Amino acid sequence: MASKLTRSTGAGWAFALPGFGLIALFIIVPFFFAFGLSLTNQRLISPNPTEYVGFENYRDLLSLSVITLEPERDDSGAVIRDEDGEIEYPRVRTITRSDDFPQYRGMREWFRWQSAETARVVIASDVVFMKALVNTLMFVLVVAPVQGGLALILALLINQKLRGINIYRAIYFMPVVVSIVVVSLLWRFIYDGNDGLLNNLLSAITFGGWQPVDWLGNPDTALGSIMAMSIWQAVGFHMVIWLSGLQTISPTLYEAAEIEGASKWQTFRYVTWPGLRNTAVLVLIVITMQAFALFAQIDVMTNGGPLDSTQTVVFQAVERGYGKQDISGGSTISVILFLLVLTISLIQRWLTREK
Amino acid sequence: MKRLTKAGLLASSTLIATGAMAQTELSMWYHGAGNEVESNILGGIIEDFNAAQSDWTVSVESFPQGSYNDSVVAGALSGNLPCILDVDGPVMPNWAWSGYMQPLPISEEAIAGHLDSTVGRWDGEIYSVGLWDAAVALYTRQATLDALGLRTPTLDNPWTGEEFMAALEAAKASGEFEYAFDPGMAWTGEWYPYAFSPFLQSFGGDIVDRSTYQTAEGALNGEAAMEFGEWWQSLFTEGYAPGTSQDPADRDNGFIEGKYAFSWNGNWAAVATLEGGVDDVVFLPAPDFGNGPTIGAGSWQFGASGTCEHPDGVAEFVEFALQDKYLAAFSDGIGLIPATEEAAAMTENYAPGGALEPFFGLSEGQALVRPVSPGYVVAAKVFEKAMADIANGADVADTLDAAVDEIDADIEANSGYGH
User: Fold this and answer.
1) Which residue segment(s) compose the domain that B332 sits in?
2) Fewer CB within 10 Å of terminal CB in chain B, N or C?
3) Among B99, B381, B402, whose Cβ lies nearest the Cβ of A47?
4) Pairing status of strand B337-338 against strand B281-284
């Protein structure tokens, strides 16, 4: 193999050149650009000169602190409680906007917990980015196994010699071919809070007992709705990859299993699944990377709202770099995302290595 | 007519000065792609201009409005801007500051009598001039006012904040409407700062402190702004208005279909409302929340790009386009408010007694331009998010504080934006 490759290098490299060239031009060079820009204060539009600012952009995005709030007390020293019996604390803004604590300037409450009578508040210099990070991780954690699993089930179902099976393959694959922007627009109508398809459907099967839910307008359901729609949209793509994996498994193995009297489950567990090993690694890594890049659905359906419940890392990178003309901030987010995806892919690779 | 002869004279004098040189081409970008009526009127003006003088030929390229600003930014970054730029009023200072635009050498005479908000000034110079303005009014039906027993507010005597809330309460109590008030939350983007920051100003706050333009502290999170924020949130928590997930179709047709008693909408929707069968629609002025009633101002305008070598040609074209007959044609065609009273008199809708005449009064009487600063572009985005978050139930003080911090950080990162 190696010797053949070395002998025909000239032609080989020539054929590979357009591909390598384009990847270098549009992926590798921009990445180094992004890293360089993230160390400056570069704006999208500005007559001001660009300056090197070191890791300030990273600090602005990632700084966290914990502050302790003592409860409000009345003159006798007793803790003041509101009507619901909850302890009243001074507002976080009395600290973050006070000249006594310049180190907390510009920071904002992310979340808090209570231990005995004091409350500890985690404040972040960029709460929106923190929420975007958490949302994106949530999205990956849910979408990767569910989408991969569903795709495998669909692949097993359509990997049969039945009449008209191609129709099902086409149906499952259809959403992949349609532009994600179009799909997102359609699902916006489906999720409509008043007379959307989903609410009408649920109300029809419960004979009117269903209370319409504003799927995208409610912070509790918005991210879940986008997960469901994203899983549906791309499941067909991964189904096809699984299918190709299934078809590489030799039929003789199945015949042997049948002769041995293996049950359906045993066949799957000891023949199909080991044969799909490499496909599984590929599907998992591809879904993970695609899920981290969640953008179009957010841009079309929610714009990150309501109350930042659907902010994602890539949406923030675009919003900052282009919308708010802060290219250095957007680049910083991109670099952080790159490191994140790289780390997770390496961990996945290590976990699924050949033992 | 006077202006036409003046332009003609100017044209002939330059002709003598430059001799029988060939016509110089002036390229132009416009935001109205997809709107046939608009394109035809602009095409007509350009044709007339090219025929009326022999120095310049203008050629136009149209972009869809949604991606127009991005196209200009991309064009500027790659050094590919046209000579004549079409620019949205509040964005102009940003482009002027960053060098995408240069001052427009237009005579003060040519813009005498024009609505203030149609002339874009930055740093003491004129950069852009518009043929029209837009205005926002509180749409309702006369029948609704009568049924609820409400006084008709006027420009001189608008509703107070209490009267406005009493009107919403009455509409809600009547049970005849899905919502009492439609502020237009489905129109994300520039609509939020354009339509809602005037409420904030009427409470006594603002997006930034206009005395220095260096901070939003106190303006966007001061007492007046907090009061505004609480009021804004109450519209949604108390069920007066549909929230951010409003269906865009309801935004367009909800008022016509009778779902909403009051709708906060622009003059561009007026013709559709009349044609939709709302014969007794009335356009009420903005309520006064204590600091005077205000509406937004400033629409699309023409200017010269920074790289253009012939700003005099651009000025000549703009002066030519500013003739009353063209202002009237645009107004009749797409329902915009003409920039001069003379042109208004020539239009169908804005002439005295015309169906949309109230809007001209609103533009003259209540209009306040959005903060004239290169930082507005970013501040507008921050403000939009704050409005959406507060509507969705976020803590008012924390949200406004966060908005202030973000605007201030941006101003600082841009070294004060040259103020």
Assistant:
1) 2-134+298-369
2) N
3) B99
4) unpaired
